[in-house]
Amino acid sequence: MTLWIVLGVIALITAALALFVIVVYNGFISMKNNIDKAWSNIDVLLKQRFDELPKLIKVCEGYMQHEQRTLEAVIKARSQVTTAAGEGQKIQAQNMLTDALRSLFMVVERYPELKADKAFRALQSRITELEDQIADRREFFNDAVNLYNIRLAQFPDVLVARLFNFARRTLWQIDPAHRADVQVSFQAPSA
Amino acid sequence: MSETHYLLVSRTLAETEEMRALLPRLAEQFRLDAFTARQRLLGRGTALLAQGARKQLEKLAALVTQHGIAAQLIHPTPPRFAPTRVRRLQIRQDFLEFSTPAAPLRLERGARVLAILADLSGQAIQKNLRRLMVQNTYQGAAAVTPLSDEELLRVVLRAQPVLDLYLIDDAQGVQTALRLMSGGFDPSGLEERAGPSTVGNMEQLIALVREYAGEFTLHCDFGLALLPGCQVRKSENGEDVHEANLAALTRFGWLMSDRVLQRPMPEIAQAHGLPIPPGLDILRAEIAAQDSPVAEQPPTGAILPPPPAAIPSRRRWGRRHIFSGSAVAGAALAVLFSGDGRLVHLVVHEGMRTGLLPAAVSAGLFSGAFYCLRVKRLIENTPTSRIRSLAMGMVELNGQARRKYALVSPATQTACVWYRLRRYRRNEKSAWQLTSESDSGAVPFFLDDGTGNVTVDPQGARIKPTVKHEGFPGQEGLLVRSLGSGETNEKWVEELIHEGAYLYVLGSARPYREQSLSLAERTREALRELKLDPKALEKYDRNGDGRIDAEEWDLARAAVEEQTLREHLHRRESAAPGTTSVVIGRSCSHTRPFIIAQTQSEAHLTRGYAWTMTALFAAALAAAVWAMTSWLG
């Protein structure tokens, strides 16, 4: 009888372990899909920003006739987003677009009439809002990836991960140029 | 456009039937939050019930007066000067002469005097509060009586008293204001009335002014009254709050003089050449800002609308479910209990002997343990989102609860976003037995994480509050923490999530479709309308051929898109704060957990699940061993 009880307990523990493996496996699958979703959710906002740009450029053109280069840079960056192939190129194109927009908003300081334009202000605030949201979602993406990578390395999840070949995911990284120190000069420009 | 007016009410010490009847009417007719209104109407002294345009407030004042509460409508005057400090006084036959740093000032016999005796230390407020709490704890709600006027006067005199005297003229308003600080003036001028005690000297001074004044009004409720900018601040971390408290006292004095005069006062700005003390400019600016013309709008006390009609939080079972469920349960019970319960005995006995019953219990416990494990891992595996950039689907949020509706808990009258009230009665074995349960139902609230706010619909959520109050019937409306006595046969237990509590929310985010359409949807709608409107299309028919070609349609579409965008942006800009386009609720499939927990720590929450899971696993294992022993033995 004791043997049967021992066998029964072993069977129960095995069943519990099997269920545990199922829970862990499903957790990994869920996390992997959440990471993909988080990435796609960034794209949703990037698309929204992309769609807002023609309107912004249209409003700016009327006032900024002497800043064609800045506007062209935004247009060019936008077109590069559409032509970019592969994840790396897309990230680079989006970063270029962010830079171009930043330059545009800096140049706008020289045009008080444009700054006062209601439509421009609304679009600027909308794009700034989108930029904040994009930054938040990138952080969220990194959080999701980080949680997944931690789970992959933790015991006992690591056993399940190795059994089913779950691989590490890469965090979103910024353009190395953005890590460089900002050079600030207080010297007056030479005439 | 009209000027801001204040509706001041004389507060009552205890809640009356009239007040109970008034609160719902204030909520319905003036959208005055019942909790806030109750707070303003109960207590000592004067309170600001609402502020706004005179026309609106007149209606409100009429309703309040109709319910037996004294109300007064005033137009607050910005303080034109602060009371000047008195160093010494001299008693004359026809007047009292006060020596000030500028010129001596006189209080003629028969003058109209408004006196404010204030305690700047906050001791009077503390004493009043302590007394209320002690009475409440030991004698119950019915015995609660705040300090009487005489007692309050004594308390203030024994604290850190300041006496402000406003000399009022019916035609010219406040003519002079004087400030006498305890220990800050030479009592020798009181002559034979002077004594060694500063308290006694202050008392004598009040008596002397009362004697000379033709009409004398004394207010001792500074700090207890609920008036804007009239609160006593307590020093924290060595911060000097004396000047701030004096400025608040000045504001209180001017408001009280407005009550006395009841009409706008003529401008006598600094006619006496009185020195302006520090802080007065700020005070004047604050009141001037409040005094700017305002549009006709509801009183600003009205912030939150009343909660919507009760929506039960429990799932409503259809008639078909109830009938079929009852029929099955009834049949099962009839079979089990037929024949003197022999069948029940047989089922239990056989179940235990064969081990089937413990095996079923074990299976149930295992399933509970795995559910806890699944939820624990889901909480741990879900990253926290920011409300500003919330994506649709399963989300985890942390933030502070904010009321969307004026929800007040029924027992303790606390402003809350969710409550559950359970009533118990002792049974024959003296054990508490649940007799009724009610909750706030599906009243939504806001969650604010600093980047934005989102509506949370708590229907179907597993709610974990941390605040729990208990009391006996008759103790409703009070914050009673312990039962104290075991004699009564009934009690209530109220759990709530109060406003401002930090919450953890795991739920499903979805667009609030009833409220707003997305930009793309609006654009599609506008284009559809344009297509159906030939007159509007004519504008884009540039070549006048009576048809819209592809190029013209592109132009029309661009114009519509631009117009919709402008409207969309304008709507977003002008949206009232607190309006959100996303709602957090239970997932549509009902397969994912929806948790609202009052905690700032996710680890605290998961630890609870871990302990439950371990206990359930251990119990399941024990039940399984028992089942096998029974089966084999």
* Overall tally of structural domains of chain B: 4
Please give the largest β-sheet of chain A.
none
Shape designation of chain A: rod-shaped
User: Share of helix among residues of chain B?
Assistant: 25-40%
Query: What fraction strand of chain B?
Result: 15-25%
Can you summarize the main beta sheet of chain B?
5 strands, mixed
- Taken together, the total number of domains of chain A comes to 1
CATH architecture of chain A: Up-down Bundle
Strand order of the largest sheet of chain B: 4-10-9-8-11
Low-confidence stretches of chain B: 263-284, 286-302, 313-319, 477-486
- Oligomeric state of the chains? heterodimer
Q: Give the N-terminus to C-terminus distance of chain A in angstroms.
A: 102 Å
The helical percent of chain A reads over 70%
How many strand segments of chain B? 22
Helix-strand category of chain B: alpha+beta
Summarize the structure.
The complex is a heterodimer of chains A (191) and B (633). Chain A has 191 residues and is mainly alpha-helical.
Describe the structure.
Chain A has one domain (13-168): de novo design (two linked rop proteins) (Up-down Bundle). Chain A contains six helices and no strands. With 191 residues, chain A is mainly α. Helices cover 77% and strands 0% of the residues of chain A. Chain B is of the alpha+beta class and 633 residues long. Chain B has four domains: 5-73, Ribosomal Protein L30, Chain: A (2-Layer Sandwich); 80-271, no CATH class; 321-354, no CATH class; 355-509 and 586-632, no CATH class. Helices cover 38% and strands 21% of the residues of chain B. Chain B has a five-stranded mixed β-sheet with strand order 4-10-9-8-11, with helices on both faces. In chain B, a hairpin with a 3-residue loop joins strand 5 and strand 6. The longest helix of chain B is centred in the last third of the chain and has 31 residues, at 602-632. Chain B starts with a strand and ends with a helix. The A-B interface holds A 1, 4-5, 8-9, 12, 16, 19-20, 23-24, 27, 30-31, 34, 37-38, 41, 44-45, 55, 119, 122-123, 125-126, 132-134, 136-137, 139-140, 143-144, 146-148, 151 and B 366, 370, 373-374, 377-378, 380-386, 388-389, 391, 393-394, 451, 562, 565-566, 569-570, 573, 617, 621, 624-625, 628-629, 632-633.
